[in-house]
From TrEMBL:
The keyword Cytoplasm does not apply. It comes from the Bacteria. The keyword NAD does not apply. One of its GO terms (molecular function) is glucose 1-dehydrogenase [NAD(P)+] activity. Its EC number is 1.1.1.47. Transmembrane segments: none annotated. InterPro entries: NAD(P)-bd_dom_sf (IPR036291), Sc_DH/Rdtase_CS (IPR020904), SDR_fam (IPR002347). Keywords: Oxidoreductase. This is Glucose 1-dehydrogenase. Gene3D superfamilies: NAD(P)-binding Rossmann-like Domain.
Length: 252
């Protein structure tokens, strides 16, 4: 039997890549899924994919860097499905590789506003809704860049380290309320974001795969499976953790 029958899940940034795979994984386990994204075209596509597979999903256009939009997004889940059991805060940007000699602080502001401030605003609204309902599970998408430094990614790295920190703090505060909060730190996963970050003449997928202990890069559905696990009863005593899903890179 599907483990999330009758449940409702919110996934931000679910119009592409990892977010789409997470939404599909929750739908495959019987949950109804609210697909939230700034990109309506990608979001609607995810809804169609889930419906074609026999699942239930709806789209809510949302910008996680905008407080009113975030509040409307969480309200839309409860209005549409009557409840909110899980939330996966996945939406993020990784706009460019900035040489350390040429830090553009406006890029820092943009990355933080979506990747960290956005996660904070989502957590605030989701926790309020889950407290009212008596519990829930939240997963934040961090990154390997949230646990180790990455040359030429100082701003993305700062935001993702922040996601790990806010996950731990919020998890400690909410555990007694029946709200479990954890994070996932993916390694290199084949998505539009990751592929767009390969510089021409620089690192290739083959090069990255060759340095991974598994000799391959990750697949979005492998992050979807990790998010399902963290929200499932199998992870009932797992609180405030950042689960690396990276083929072993972080321990090599
Ligand atoms: N792909 C990887 O290798 C990798 C590795 C580590 C961590 N991650 C993390 O996984 C998550 C998903 O990444 P991905 O590779 O699938 O990226 P992606 O670019 O394929 O998808 C990101 C989605 O987020 C949406 N989005 C962007 N800004 C938004 C906003 N302000 N409000 C709402 N939606 C917004 C985009 O429209 C897009 O649909 C991100 O948090 C990313 O940092 C990815």
């Amino acid at each position: 039997m599907a483990i999330f029958e009758g449940k409702a899940t919110l996934v931000t940034g679910a119009g592409s890549g990892i977010g789409r795979a997470i939404a599909q994984a929750f739908a495959a386990e019987g949950s109804r899924v609210m697909i939230a994204d700034v990109d309506a075209k990608g979001g609607e596509e995810t809804v169609k994919l889930i419906e074609a597979a026999g699942g239930t999903a709806a789209f809510q256009k949302a910008d996680v860097s905008d407080q009113a939009s975030v509040e409307a997004m969480v309200k839309a889940v409860v209005d549409r499905f009557g409840r909110i059991d899980h939330a996966v805060n996945n939406a993020a940007v990784d706009p460019e590789v900035t040489p350390e000699s040429d830090w553009d602080i406006t890029v820092l502001d943009r990355i933080l506003s979506i990747n960290l401030r956005g996660v904070a605003m989502c957590l605030k609204a989701e926790i309020a809704a889950m407290q009212a309902a008596g519990g829930g599970c939240i997963v934040n998408l961090a990154s390997m860049a949230g646990v180790v430094g990455v040359p030429n990614k100082p701003f993305y790295c700062a935001a993702k380290h922040g996601v790990v920190g806010i996950t731990r703090s919020a998890a400690l505060a909410q555990a007694k309320n029946g709200i479990r909060i954890n994070a996932i730190a993916p390694g290199f996963i084949e998505t539009p974001m990751a592929l767009a970050n390969l510089e021409p003449g620089g690192m290739t997928v083959d090069f990255i795969a060759g340095r991974n202990p598994t000799r391959r890069i990750g697949r979005p559905e492998e992050i979807g499976a990790a998010a399902v696990y963290l929200c499932s009863p199998y992870a009932g005593f797992t609180v405030g953790q950042t689960l690396s899903v990276d083929g072993g890179v972080s321990v090599s």
